[in-house]
Amino acid sequence: MDLEHGKKPPAIAAAELCSLKDKLVGLRPVLLRAAAVLATAVAAVVMGLNRQSYTAVVAIVGTRPLRQTFTAKFSDTPAFVYFVIANSIASLYNLVVLLLRRCIVQGRAQHLVVHRMDMVISFLLIIIYRLNDT
Fold this sequence. Notes:
Blueprint: H1 11-49, E1 51-61, E2 64-73, H2 78-100, H3 108-133
Antiparallel strand pairs: 1-2
Helix pairs in contact: 1-2, 2-3
C-alpha cells in the first residue's frame, strides 16, 4: 500500500528480510543432508532386514502336489549387498558431516572441505562397487 502512495518501505523491514533469507539459505544444506541421512538409512535397514519367501509347486505325485519354499535375502545377490553397504556408508558419512558441520572452518573453506570429503566418499563407493563386481 505504501508503495502505491509514493512512500518507501522502512529499511528495517528490508534488513530483517535479508537476514531471514540468509538464514534460510544457510539452512538448506543442513535440511538436504538430514533428508539424505534419513533416506539412505531407511533404505539400508529395509533392504538389510527384508526376506521374501515364495512357495511353488515343483511336482505332482498322484493327486498330491509337492511344494517347495524358496527364501531370498539381500545377501544372495551381490548388487543388493553393494546397495546395503553403499547406503550404510552414505548415511554414516552424511551424519558425520552434519554433526561436524560446526567444527569445520566456517566460510568458503568449509564448503571446500565438505566438497572434497564428498569426492572421497564417492571414490570409496566406486571402489567398493568395483570390488563387489568381481
